[in-house]
Design brief:
2 domains; 150 residues; mainly alpha; 5 helices; elongated
Length: 150
């Protein structure tokens, strides 16, 4: 009975401490990821290289089975910059690139789908006209088309 209580206490302690250690590393990873992103951008690097460096660091620090998605990584950097406003005051202007205009992206996708549909419609119309032309050509024999036959 004494052993059962000890095991129960050990599992309870592990159950409480494990999430705390994982959360702390995640906060540190996003904080340093934000520092990487902001420092690189402030140093004159473009958005892509700064984002790749910060996102790679955040993914590497996360560990575990599930990886951080790009959307989550961008949110973590944004949250850190907003939370530590005094420290990252120079970085606020770069946050717009982390979250692109979703409406613009949707509109571009709709436009692309519309163009694809128009292309398919034109292709189907062309095939249908070719088929009709072939059927029309089959109706004429060589004798009717011979212009020198008297």
């Amino acid at each position: 009975m004494q052993r059962f209580k000890q095991k129960k206490l050990i599992y309870l302690t592990l159950g409480i401490l494990t999430p705390l250690t994982l959360t702390t590393s995640n906060v540190n990873a996003s904080s340093f990821g934000a520092e990487i992103f902001c420092t690189m951008r402030d140093g004159g690097n473009d958005h892509e290289s700064s984002w790749d460096a910060a996102y790679t660091y955040i993914k590497k620090q996360k560990g575990g089975i599930f990886k951080v998605s790009p959307k989550q990584g961008a949110s973590q950097i944004t949250e850190t910059v907003i939370r530590e406003r005094e420290k990252f005051s120079y970085c606020v202007e770069y946050l717009d690139k982390l979250h692109p205009n979703r409406k613009l992206i949707r509109d571009l996708q709709k436009e692309e789908e519309k163009k694809e549909q128009e292309f398919k419609d034109r292709e189907n119309k062309r095939k249908r006209l070719e088929k009709e032309l072939e059927e029309t050509n089959e109706e004429f024999t060589e004798e009717t088309l011979d212009r020198y036959s008297y």
